[in-house]
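Hey, resending since the last one bounced:
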Amino acid sequence: MDNGQPVTKAEFDASVGNLNASVADLNASVSGLKGSVAVLDASVADLKASVADLDTSVSGLKGSVAELRSDLRLQRDELLDSMRQIETNLLTEFHRYAKGQNARVHNVEVGEYDLKLRLSVLEDRVLSLETRLPPSAL
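The structure tokens again:
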């Protein structure tokens, strides 16, 4: 063909047939690519829908976390109030117990003073008996 001789009809027809086959192959490849593009477009659409679902889920989770934080703060405040009330009740009861114990100790001290006074009087009487002093001399 490049040798300067004219192309025969058979060669021309063969070349056209080869070109037609190549065009058919290209058309098949283009069709395959169009199918792949369609599949990719569908996949992108699915991914977009998944991203939208994830965004909705994340928003829901953020709301749930905020609600949980609020609930935890409320429970913490309630727990602190309960602990303060328990502390107040314990201190009140300790104070009551201490008052009762102080009264008992006071009674013991008063009773001890009375016993010491009586013992002192008895010692004085025994001393006066031992020294034989008349009772009027005391």
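The two ends are 167 Å apart (CA to CA).

Sorry for the duplicate.
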